[in-house]
Write a structure and sequence with these properties.
Blueprint (H helix, E strand, L loop, with lengths): L7 E2 L10 E2 L6 H9 L4 H10 L3 E3 L2 E3 L1 H7 L1
Antiparallel strand pairs: 1-2, 3-4
C-alpha cells in the first residue's frame, strides 16, 4: 500500500528533517492517523499553528524558531 503524507519541514537551518510537523520521532503506528487521514495543506498549517508553528515570508518555522524570531 502506498500512502501520501503532508509534512511541514522547518525552513530554518535544521530544515533538513530534524524538525517536522507532525513530528516523525514517534512510532509509525502513532502517526498512522496523520498519514492516512486526508488533510489539505490549509488544514495541516492550521494544526501546526495550534502547535506553535508559523509562517514568515512564505516559509514554515517551528515553535523554537518562532520564539527566537520575536
Amino acid at each position: 500500500m502506498i500512502r501520501a503524507a503532508k509534512i511541514i519541514f522547518c525552513d530554518n537551518e535544521h530544515g533538513t528533517g530534524d524538525v517536522t510537523f507532525p513530528s516523525l520521532d514517534r512510532p509509525t503506528n502513532e502517526l498512522a492517523g496523520e498519514y492516512v487521514a486526508p488533510q489539505t495543506t490549509a488544514q495541516l498549517r492550521k494544526s501546526a499553528k495550534k502547535a506553535g508553528w508559523g509562517r514568515i515570508n512564505g516559509g514554515d518555522y517551528c515553535p523554537m524558531c518562532m520564539e527566537s524570531d520575536q
